[in-house]
Amino acid sequence: MLTLQTWIVQALLVFLTTDSIGGLLDPCGYINPESPVVQLGSNFTAVCVLKEKCMDYFHVNANYIFWKTNHVTVPKEQYTVINRTASSVTFTNIPLLNSQLTCNIRTFGQIDQNVYGIRIISGLPPEKPKNLNCIVNEGKKMMCQWAPGRETYLETNFTLKSEWATEKFDDCEAKRDTPTSCTVDYSPVYFVNIEVWVEAENALGKVTSDHINFDPIDKVKPNAPHNLSVNNSEELSSILKLTWINSNIKNFITLKYNIQYRTKDASTWSQIPPEDTASTRSSFTVQDLKPFTEYVFRIRCMKADGKGFWSDWSEEASGITYEDRPSKAPSFWYKIEPSRTHGHRSVQLIWKTLPPFEANGKILDYEVTVTRWKSRLQNYTVNGTELTVNLTNDRYIATLTARNLVGKSDASVLTIPACDFQATHPVMDLKAFPKDNVLWVEWTATNGSVNKYILEWCVLSDTLPCIPDWQQEDGTVHRTYLRGNLAESKCYLITVTPVYADGPGSPESIKAYLKQAPPSKGPTVRTKKVGKNEAVLEWDQLPVDVQNGFIRNYTIFYRTIIGNETAVNVDSSHTEYTLSSLTSDTLYMVRMAAYTDEGGKDGPEFTFTTPKFAQGEIEAIVVPVCLAFLLTTLLGVLFCFNKRDLIKKHIWPNVPDPSKSHIAQWSPHTPPRHNFNSKDQMYSDGNFTDVSVVEIEANDKKTFPEDMKSLDLFKREKISTEGHSSGIGGSSCMSSSRPSISSSDENESAQNTSSTVQYSTVVHSGYRHQVPSVQVFSRSESTQPLLDSEERPEDLQLVDNVEGSDGILPRQQYFKQNCGQRETSPVISHFERSKQGSSINQEDFVRLKQQQISDHISQSSGSGQMKMFQEVSTAASFGPGTEEQVERFETVGMEAAIDEGMPKSYLPQTVRQGGYMPQ
Amino acid sequence: QVIPPFSAPGLVLGLLFLSTAATGSCSGKYQGLLEQLRSQADYMQDTSRLLDPYIHIQGLDTSGLKEHCKERPGVFPSEDALWRLSRWDFLQILNATLGQVLHRLTTFQQDLPQFKDLGMVMLYIRGFQSNIHCMCQLLGSSSEAAKPTQASPAPPLPTLASDAFQRKLEGCRFLSGYHHFMHSVAQVLREWGKSPRRVRRHSPRQALQKGAHGTHLFSRGRRLAPSGQLPW
């Protein structure tokens, strides 16, 4: 239904169109030529001729004509008005185009009207076809081919023409899709020359190729021989007979053949000499083949005179030659296993199966004989490739033969040396290298009488045991390749053992790779020691399983977070390396790559941080600082010590305890006994200053310098004691004792003593139980002892007893100031150290001593007092260690005693605050 | 009625073919052309091309019938006669005979559409004629070719039997004679290849026959009549 409607519409359209052409679309003119095909690069001229009727109607002539190509007006320079009705346009050097050319007129001065239009097609004429050749596939029709030449851009027809001398054949029109060949539609007739040529034709011309004249039989490609078969011969193990069926072309021509063959596993073909197969035949016997070997054959043929084409190869056919006796003795070797019984050893004889080209058949079994010198031989028949025999430690000869269906091989002879045999003469210059995808081994013999060489190899591994493989080479061979199934990236340990007539020589080994590869893993680097500016890295050698080749070198890459990476190459023999010139207190990232000949592999990245200070640098800083601090402190202490009075004055001036103060006056005219306990005798106004003035009488026999020396010693000890003192009590005790020893700080002493009630006594004692040469005195600032001693006569008795038992003790006591603290003075501590074991309270002892003195004074009515003065004077004479001190000492009162030449006593007086008054 | 190829009109037609039918160029090499002629003769004497298929198709391949399928003497020129001919005459007779054979095969083709190889054989015969044309051209330029020879004999025109079986037998005998004739042609052409100057005009046997019967083209010794029909 739809088809019918379409047909009706089309018919109606045709009708209307046809009607319009006659009436509505009558053109005003025409263009000549109507359908031009223009050659590329040529000139083209078109002429537009107007009709008279149209000219009259529109009142135009040829001058009104203008041209357009593809709706673009052609410049008027290209127009030529031929006459009143005709105008031409010329195009030069026509390019490759397919354009529309229209002739137009301008009517009524402004209306453009199309008169006629044509389409210009450009192209090239055909070139002469070249290289025309024909082929006659047997049983098929002749096909000819040619080279068509350049592109014409136009529809070009190729026609193959052929004829005999007496008749023509039908033309063969090349198909559009295969314009370069054509197959004729008649069967080829052999032995008649045929003339063939090709005509190429398009709108711009026709051209003919060269004619070729040939006999189709000379263009034949025969069908391949078929039914190829191969048969062997039991008489001859080296031949195979081929038979085949020729194609029918043999009825017309003489054939020649190519016969090729190869062993089954080979890839390259061998060819029978062509001169042996230069004529038509249907069988051929191939000779000089290997026994018991499968061969593959193929055959092709062509016209014997070489004209025409080779046929395709026939289908391959194979055959196996008949067996022959093994052509070679098997490779033969042995291993000696550890002996279990004394005098015997277990020897494993091993051999290799013969390759097919040497076995020449199926090996049925092996015959092994083992013979000891001048003894009966032992025969074994073995199907496998090893035999273990228990032998004595003597020398043995073993032989091996392989047997197949046809016969036995020659015997392999092997000498198994005695146990005490010393192997010598190893091979020299052993080398192993890969080449052509096999691993070659090369060596130099040291002894010319080598029977054979045994090559053993195994894969070196950290995890797997070394499972050796081996092969045998003749004694004349110095270079061979390992015929095992070797793997790439594996380290092989290869051992070459020369075998001499009397036994094996010393083995020589070498490592090699069939093909190296980059390591599977990179080395793991770590730090062994990290310094401020350097780091010692260390790593382990890569396991052989991951090396995949010989490690040629390592490269250490290290960088900071922001810095560029630095690479350092390290020899493969090293396992540690020191990175220097590092920045302190910096995080470094380091990794390491190991390289073989084929490339490298990075190991894991490792980070470390360099310390801020080098080793010992902190100590170098801290120790001097500490020392400086100590020194400063010491200086400060000394300074404070020197300025202690001033400091004391400003910081903790002595505030007298009124409850413990009393007023006393010492005078030569007053009775020697004082009641210090009487509170009534204290100063009532609170002012105090008891000055204990010691007058030293120079009645001692010792010379003054000696005394001064003793005093100096004492002073040193005193200073030393002060140096160890600490705390208020110690400090105050020292400060209070100092003026008693040295009167150099006269004014200050006056101030100090003015605020305290001071007692003093002569301490005639040596240092640490030594008997001093002079008596020194000490002073106590205590305000009470004397009073207490008077109240406790038992203490006095005790002291007497002590004094009687140990005469040193009384001389070691000295006065101390009771500063409200109990015996914390380092002086006391020192003293306590010096009299360890004494359980007597020092204070009580002092009291006792003072009581004694007091008693002496009171009982001897001046003589005792005089005695005390003598002691004090002795001590005073050695007080100051320097002249200045002596002078200061003299200013206190000694000067008067010395000047007067008689002992004078200074009694304590009540002095007003701010000073004391010497009497 | 079939025009006998070896009659005067047939000969005239044959000569006309040789002189006017040429369209292409010949190779111009005598030895090559001679070899082609020889190969064609060898090809055509093979009974597997025509006779055997014909016998098979016509159902004559039984032991009793095969014996009757033998050449009838006098239909094709004998080998002796061919030996006596000059090359020019030989080629003319050969060409005329092939024309006759073509004519007869055309009849077979109409009667035996199942005879597929017939068209191929006819094409080969036409090719043979093309080579004869070229050889004639080649010989025509030589003195021998230009020299007029004895009138070429023409084979007798066989009579078509009305009986179908007889027609089968006649066809079989004709093809047998054709193959034999081509064998003789091959023999003659093989002699041509030795040397143009050594080509014998008469074989020893021919000489004997010549002495006994005079010059005869056909084995039965019948002289070729320039005109008229000869019995089969």
Short description:
The complex is a heterodimer of chains A (919) and B (232). Chain A has 919 residues and is an alpha+beta fold. Helix content of chain A is 22%, strand content 32%.
Question: What descriptive keywords fit this protein?
Answer:
heterodimer, A: 919 residues, alpha+beta, five-stranded mixed sheet, five-stranded antiparallel sheet, 16 helices, 50 strands, disordered C terminus, B: 232 residues, mainly alpha, Growth Hormone, Chain: A, globular, disordered N terminus
Q: How large, in whole angstroms, is the Cα Rg of chain A?
A: 69 Å
Total helical segments of chain A? 16
Derived structural class of chain A: alpha+beta
Q: Figure out the total of helices of chain B.
A: 10
User: What is the radius of gyration of chain B computed over CA atoms, rounded to a whole number of angstroms?
Assistant: 17 Å
- List how many beta strands of chain A DSSP finds: 50
Give me the oligomer status: heterodimer
Shape estimate of chain A? flat
Task: Describe the sheet with the most strands of chain A.
Answer: 5 strands, mixed
Q: Pair with the most extensive interface?
A: A-B, 21 and 28 residues
The residue fraction in helices of chain B comes out at 55-70%
Region (Disordered) (chain B): 202-232
Signal peptide (chain B): 1-22
InterPro entries (chain B): 4_helix_cytokine-like_core, Leukemia_IF/oncostatin, OSM
GO cellular component, one term (chain B): extracellular space
